[in-house]
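Tutorial handout. Part one gives the primary structure; part two gives the three-dimensional structure as tokens.
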Amino acid sequence: MRTLGTAACPPYHIAFVIGGTSAETNLKTVKLASAHYYDELPTEGNEHGQAFRDIQLEQELLEEAQKLGLGAQFGGKYFAHDIRVIRLPRHGASCPVGMGVSCSADRNIKAKIKPRRYLDRKTGTQPRPVHSTRTASGR
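Part two.
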């Protein structure tokens, strides 16, 4: 985390993913975890190798992030708003580890885009019309 520094506008939302069956799976999970998509994962694994959030490691890493002294602008303890740690099942011969960072102003929206309309998460079933591309003259 120290090498990241303040280049991406802290305080950050940070996601670590440990494991996965491939580096690609790991990095896809990093992106989704940084957007809080996996916040409802169980907090412990099972005998079938289910993915889980490691809440204890999240807390330890957040405490370490606060000790860095790399906060917004002039330093301080606000290097990270939050840290997510997701553990995935993996092959015994490899253990990919990924880290993703989103800035404080990270904004995400879920939407379904269909011809001539889209449904966003907030309105749910109320479709909004897509703005027309016609000019004022009607062309």
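Part three, for discussion. The two ends are 53 Å apart (CA to CA). The helical segments are 23-34, 55-67.
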